[in-house]
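User: Please fill in residues for this 340-position structure.
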């Protein structure tokens, strides 16, 4: 049985087992969202009227007090009656969104590009509209397990999706599928786009300097963001740090060299945390956030973009604030371990 959620002046039909977030995004109604797993709290909303089932909402993301106060996680909650909801902060269904869709993609290539890292190219039967920086979900064959991978594409690269995937020890998606049995020509289900890690629309983008810091395959969405920002303004200052353990973990170096050549205000800084850089190399030692603090005296007026493991993202937020970046200009995408 379906129920209706009213958000602002829009009404969305929600299936019995469908999360509110899934229903909103499929209907093209924007809702803040990030992890789609109940861990980040971005999709928290207020149920003004009606009943919801909180499903698997974790208590540390949605406390008992918050449930009592009528809050819910849109990515976990399902409706049990027609309901009226509102997003926190007053936004009600505004913003630009591209509807969430299910498509069947064909594996075009699945190549090793760095240590324990693959580049997966997936051809879609029709274009998928998304914002650069968003992610898609793949479902592991024969299971209900969904895995989330950021898109490395710009918005016009909407027929062949590029994902960067690092192997996870014992991982159902990587060790038992993508790195072993997945073959060119396989047909796989793809759901997307998801997430709120993307640039403002061009007419509200202030064009200010940007710093992007990615850990490991956290580089993927930053490529789409950086290329989009530079295509809007080729003179824009864009500083991209890629933090990895060793030189064998670096990838897309040709693309970085090309961007550096074409856009003089673009800087790429590879940083090695577990290896001493070779003499004369452009690599730096340590952590990207420390280098940002050394390189930039003031980040007032800048925007910051962080994607990777939670400790790196948290260190980045501190570094940006230390250099006086406004909190609202700090954007983050945390890679949290998937649970089976
Ligand atoms: S908790 Fe719902 S999107 Fe993260």
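Assistant: Residues filled in for all 340 positions:
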């Amino acid at each position: 049985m379906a129920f209706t959620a009213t958000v602002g002046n829009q009404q969305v039909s929600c299936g019995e087992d469908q999360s509110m977030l899934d229903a909103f995004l499929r209907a093209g109604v924007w809702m803040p969202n990030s992890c789609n797993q109940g861990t980040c709290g971005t999709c928290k909303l207020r149920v003004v009227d009606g009943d919801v089932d909180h499903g698997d909402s974790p208590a540390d993301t949605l406390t008992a007090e918050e449930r009592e106060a009528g809050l819910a996680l849109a990515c976990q909650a399902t409706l049990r009656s027609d309901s009226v909801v509102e997003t926190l902060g007053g936004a009600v269904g505004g913003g630009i969104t591209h509807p969430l869709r299910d498509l069947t993609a064909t594996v075009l290539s699945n190549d090793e590009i760095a240590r324990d890292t693959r580049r997966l190219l997936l051809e879609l039967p029709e274009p998928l509209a998304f914002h650069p920086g968003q992610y898609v979900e793949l479902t592991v064959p024969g299971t209900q397990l969904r895995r989330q991978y950021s898109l490395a594409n710009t918005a016009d690269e909407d027929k062949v999706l590029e994902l960067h995937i690092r192997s996870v020890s014992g991982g159902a998606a990587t060790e038992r599928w993508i790195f072993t049995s997945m073959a060119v020509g396989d047909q796989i289900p793809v759901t997307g786009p998801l997430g709120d890690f993307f640039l403002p629309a061009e007419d509200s983008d202030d064009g200010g300097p940007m710093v992007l810091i990615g850990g490991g395959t956290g580089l993927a969405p930053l490529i789409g963001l950086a290329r989009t920002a530079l295509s809007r303004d080729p003179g824009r200052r864009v500083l991209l740090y890629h933090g990895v353990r060793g030189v064998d973990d670096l990838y897309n170096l040709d693309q970085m060299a090309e961007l550096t050549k074409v856009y003089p205000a673009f800087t790429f800084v590879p940083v090695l945390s577990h290896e001493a850089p070779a003499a004369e190399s452009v690599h730096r030692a340590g952590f990207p956030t420390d280098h940002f603090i050394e390189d930039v005296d003031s980040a007032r007026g800048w925007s910051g973009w962080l994607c990777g493991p939670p400790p790196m993202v948290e260190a980045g937020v501190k570094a940006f604030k230390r250099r006086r970046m406004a909190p609202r200009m700090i954007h983050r995408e945390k890679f949290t371990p998937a649970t089976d």
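For context: The chain has three domains: 3-90, 101-194, 202-334.
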